[in-house]
Amino acid sequence: MRVLHDVEKVPWEEAWKITKKTCAYTNHTVLPEALEKWPVKLMEYLLPRHLEILYEINSSFLAEVGKKWPGDNGRMSRMSLIEEGSEKRINMAHLSIVGCHSINGVASIHSEILRKQLFRDFYELWPQKFNNKTNGVTPRRWLVSCNPNLADSITSKIGSNWPTQLEELRGLSKFAKDKEFLLQLQKVKQENKMKLASYIEQNNGILVDPTSMFDIQVKRFHEYKRQLLNILHTITLYNRIKKNPEKNIAPRTVMIGGKAAPGYHMAKLIIKLFNNMAFIVNTDTTVNKKLKCVFLENYRVSLAEKIIPAADLSEQLSTAGMEASGTGNMKFMLNGALTIGTLDGANVEMRQEMGANNFFLFGMTVEQVEDLRNKGYNPREYYDRNAELRQCIDQIGGGYFSPEDPNLFKEIASSLINHDRYMLLADYASYVKVQETVGETFLNIPAWTNMVAMNIAASGKFSSDRTISEYAREIWKVQPKKEKLPAPYESLQKEQEVIEMGKFVK
């Protein structure tokens, strides 16, 4: 607006039309702390002209709201770009909505939450602006490049077009009971697991059993992603094995990887807890034949390319309604890992695509989470009535995993019992129960591998090609093309043209 109106002298109304037609808003989170609110005083000091323009936009917008809902001051206050209070702040999400022609979430359930909860007032004003664009991942990197043996196995069954037409993976479903194909899948997975086991031995100094279940959670550390719930289950497994070492259970290697924001104290404390727990588990000879733990340090794309092809189980544990979409979940699915997860983010659509029988579902739904919160969630009730859960939390808070500093993890235990913002304790029993089913299924190799085949076959929807095509057609209003563009200097003619222009760089 500033450039168009102040610099280019475009009349205000025309400049505003151009701005709205140019801009589209993709929301990527529902977390309040991630939806930016800028102090008015700061903007007044740094960008005074921008603030004047923003005030004018807000004035016109609130006039439109007032015309549709006369006298509804509460709604006007909720929708204003300027939040009143002890310190006036600019709601940047609201500004994005008002100044654009399209608003989308990045998974079906996420877009529904935007419409019904987070931006409900705006949806009631402009329902035509809202739409969904479910995220996707590129199969060229996340299968062809990082898992070439699996790619070759797929090509041997359905041809070579699938990397650019991922929906063709559906053709694999007819091989889900084909013994030869299932053996190929098992062989490829085992080779990938052996490679990752070798990497772990070299980089972490830990010997892991490549025939054990590789149970993996890799993602940014945040309390809503509930790495701590994974830890609670791992401690439960540890306690069960200690109590009954002879019981036949599926051996597991639990791996967690990811980074915490520099100032995120609790996330860093949870990382410390996992590492302390891993040391105790891995050095306990009663347990370490059936359970090992590995923290995958410095998680990054190049490491993900080793981890994801080797995963047996993908942990997608976010509290229902908190994860916008996720893309790691799609990468694991594409590479033949089975998912244990909540009905959150893209998990919902993944489960729809693969069929409920091929997904390990646990936990509350968005509606149940909201209902429990409204009734008044008391985590201590769950702590008091579940002996296994109570034992885990008491071990954390009592110094079992930090004998050198018994109070080190008291804060985690206290937070779970007294606050538990992300309702780990409410979902604990369901999670542990479904993990038992996971373990039993893993021991049934034909059943597990059949589920693997069905997961891969159902991955076609989750290609970034589909996502970008939808953005192009429905938001940007351009037609995507399938033709492959030549790389720079790919042809002699192009190289000659560049040389003649004097811009050639060898």
What is the count of DSSP helices, taking H or I runs of 4+ residues? 24
| Radius of gyration, whole Å | 26 Å
Shape: globular
Strands of the biggest beta sheet: in what spatial order? Answer: 9-8-7-10-11-12
Structure class: alpha/beta
Distance between the termini: 42 Å
Count the E strands.
12
Main beta sheet strand tally, sense and closure: 6 strands, parallel
Mean pLDDT: 96
Helix fraction by DSSP (H/I, runs of at least 4)? 40-55%
What percentage of the residues does DSSP assign to strands (E)?
Answer: 5-15%
Low-confidence runs of at least 5 consecutive residues:
none
Features:
24 helices, 3-stranded parallel sheet, alpha/beta, 506 residues, 6-stranded parallel sheet
Provide a descriptive summary of the structure in words.
It is a single chain. The protein is of the alpha/beta class and 506 residues long. Helix content is 53%, strand content 9%. It has 24 helices and twelve strands. It has helices spanning 2-7, 12-22, 40-46, 48-68, 73-79, 92-98, 108-118, 120-125, 139-145, 148-158, 179-204, 227-243, 265-282, 301-307, 328-334, 347-354, 366-375, 379-385, 387-398, 410-418, 424-443, 445-457, 464-476, 492-500; strands at residues 25-26, 37-39, 82-83, 89-91, 103-105, 130-132, 213-218, 252-257, 291-296, 313-316, 338-341, 360-361. The strands form three sheets. It has a six-stranded parallel β-sheet, sandwiched between helices.
